[in-house]
Amino acid sequence: MTSKSSLRKTKLVSVKLKEKMANKGFGEVIGLFLAVAFCITCPEYVSSAQRELGKGSPTNTSATSPPASDNVIRPGVGVADTPRPTPRTGPYFDLAASKNVTALLGKTAYLNCRVKNLGNKTLNMQVSWVRHRDIHLLTVGRYTYTSDQRFRAIHLPHSEDWTLQIKYPQHRDSGIYECQISTTPHMSHFIHLNVVEPTTEIIGGPDLYIDRGSTINLTCVVLYSPEPPAYIFWNHNDAIISYDSPRGGVSVVTEKGETTTSFLLIQQARPSDSGNYQCNPSNAQSKSVVVHVLNEANSIFPLSGEYPAAMQRGGQAFAPTSTHCIVLATSIFLALS
Question: Rounded to two decimals, what is the model's pTM?
């Protein structure tokens, strides 16, 4: 009976629905169908949205619990590899403060070795310096063991620096020196010492020929110097050149750097400016050049084939080449013909 009654009710509802649709207009029928379709699909849409939302958060989160944070470390959950610096427990070398050294010949050199984390272990551990060329022990701690008095150990109390001092270094002192910590096994850091001797050059030497009335431009270059020279002075015929002399027109420009250059400029060259000029850096050997100021009659190349090694015209050095010789020979041939 129950099923028959339900069937009658369903038919009655459908009949009433058909009657209502017959009495409604076309727009109202469309609206009714849209309402029915929304009622059918809405629960499915809501449940789908809830499932998508539930993917990023726990389903059983209480209102009082704080939201999960990506920075919270949870048990059993892997964390990205973020290496943390682990404190060193033993001594080690500070490489930034223990570098190779370039020293000037004859000037005291200092080789520094900085040991970190040695602490109060100096009673049990020692820092030594060994010359690698002949495995010669130079110093142990603050004591010097070599008979060469040019070597000396320097260490201040509570300091991390262990310095090897070398007085009057020579070329033979160049090479590798080993800073050694007496651990088991021992730890070593190698420092290279390079003993250099600066050299001096004068461009255009040893002889320079200049036309009378031109500007003498002597260029002195100091090479292979670990530091710029403190000063550079010029001599003319063994007398220091005075820039305030009555002759006038004499000036010096010095550019310091890894390569130091000094320019001696003498305007309106005259025969009395001829002679020997010497460049004297404070940290290198001197260098000389002989300047010949030519009169107008002697300013051209001689026909005997003996050409000056270098000439200056308008302040610039000029060295004759084979091309110049060919041009000169052609000119002479045309002039004679």
Answer: 0.51
